[in-house]
Design brief:
By secondary structure, the protein is an alpha/beta fold. It is built from 7 helices and 10 strands. 34% of the residues lie in helices and 28% in strands. The strands form 2 sheets. Strands 6-7-8-3-9-10 form a 6-stranded mixed sheet. A hairpin with a 6-residue loop joins strand 1 and strand 2 (20-31). Helix 4 (119-129) runs antiparallel to helix 5 (144-157). The protein is globular. The two termini are 30 Å apart. Bound molecules: adenosine-5'-diphosphate (2 copies). One adenosine-5'-diphosphate binds next to loops.
C-alpha cells in the first residue's frame, strides 16, 4: 500500500523577479513499511517536499495523498485531525514546551488527542532513547542531544503510521544517533510504519531502505539499499 504519494508536486515561493521554484513537478511514492531518506544539497527542496507531503505547507500545483485522502480536499480542521491521527514529526528545532517535563512533552500529543499510550510501547521507546532517569526534568535541564531524544520519543510514542524527520539525528552524537536510527528502522519492520527522513548524513541514510536525491527541486536519482542495516 502507498502511505503517502505526491504527484507532479510543485511549490513556488514569491512572485516575479524574486520567484523561487522550490519543487518542480515531483512525483514520488512512500510505501507503507518503507524507510526513505531524502538527500541533496542545501536549497534543493528537501524540507519543502517533506513539509508539503506532511500537510504542513501548502503547494502551488499537483497533488498529495496520505493513504486514500487527497490533502487538497480537506479543510484546515480535517487536515489537523489527519496529522494528529496518522503522523509523527521530528523537527530540527525540537519544539519542546519549556514548562513541561520530558515525559509530559512525550505524551502531550496523545493527551491533546485524548488517547492513551500503549504502556509497553512507551516503556520501550523511553528505554531505547535512554531517558529513564531524565523523565521528570524540564527541557532546560537537558542537553541538546537529550532534548532531541525527547522529540524523537514524542514522535514515536503514539505509533503513528507515518513519521517525518528533518535531520532527526542532526544534534546527536554518533552513538545516540545510531540507537535512534536503529530503533526507527526496527519500528518500521515491526509496526509497518513508514518513515521519511531528510538528512545530510550518509551514515544516517544507510539505515533507510531507499534514498532519493533532490537537486533544484527535482528528483535526480534514487537508490535502493537491499540490506538497510546501517553501518554501525
Ligand atoms: P533544503 O531543505 O533542501 O535545504 P528548502 O526546501 O529549504 O531546501 O528550500 C528550497 C528552496 O526554496 C531554496 O531555494 C530556499 O531558499 C527556498 N525557500 C524555502 N523556504 C522558503 C520561504 N519560506 N520563502 C522563500 N523561499 C523559500
Ligand atoms: P534547512 O536547513 O532545512 O534547509 P533552511 O535553513 O534552508 O532549512 O530554512 C529554515 C527556514 O527558513 C525554513 O522554514 C524555510 O522555509 C525558511 N527559508 C529558507 N529559505 C528561505 C528564503 N529564501 N526566504 C524565506 N524563508 C526561507
Amino acid at each position: 500500500a502507498v502511505a503517502a504519494h505526491a504527484s507532479a508536486l510543485s511549490k513556488v515561493y514569491g512572485q516575479g523577479e524574486t520567484q523561487v521554484v522550490a519543487l518542480d513537478q515531483v512525483t514520488v511514492d512512500f510505501r507503507q513499511g518503507q524507510f526513505t531518506a531524502i538527500m541533496g544539497p542545501s536549497g534543493s527542496g528537501k524540507s519543502t517536499l517533506m513539509h508539503c507531503v506532511a500537510g504542513l505547507d501548502s503547494f502551488s500545483s499537483g497533488s498529495v495523498r496520505i493513504g486514500d485522502t487527497e490533502l487538497s480536499t480537506l479543510k484546515d480542521k480535517q487536515l489537523t485531525q489527519l496529522r494528529r491521527d496518522k503522523i509523527g514529526f521530528i523537527f530540527q528545532a525540537f519544539n519542546l514546551l519549556p514548562t513541561l517535563t520530558a515525559l509530559e512533552n512525550i505524551t502531550l500529543p496523545m493527551d491533546i488527542a485524548g488517547r492513551k499510550p500503549d504502556k509497553q510501547w512507551l516503556d520501550n521507546v523511553i528505554t531505547m532513547i535512554g531517558l529513564k532517569d531524565r523523565l521528570h526534568h524540564r527541557p532546560t535541564a537537558l542537553s541538546g542531544g537529550q532534548q532531541q531524544r525527547v522529540a524523537v520519543a514524542r514522535a514515536l510514542a503514539s505509533q503513528p503510521e507515518i513519521i517525518f524527520g528533518d535531520e532527526p539525528t542532526g544534534n546527536l552524537d554518533s552513538r545516540a544517533g545510531a540507537e535512534v536510527l536503529g530503533f526507527m528502522r526496527n519500528s518500521v519492520r515491526e509496526l509497518g510504519q513508514t518513515v521519511v527522513m531528510v538528512t545530510h548524513d550518509p551514515v544516517a541514510a544507510s539505515y533507510a531502505d531507499r534514498v532519493i536525491f533532490l537537486a533544484d527541486g527535482r528528483i535526480v536519482d534514487e537508490m535502493q539499499n537491499p540490506t538497510a542495516e546501517g553501518v554501525l
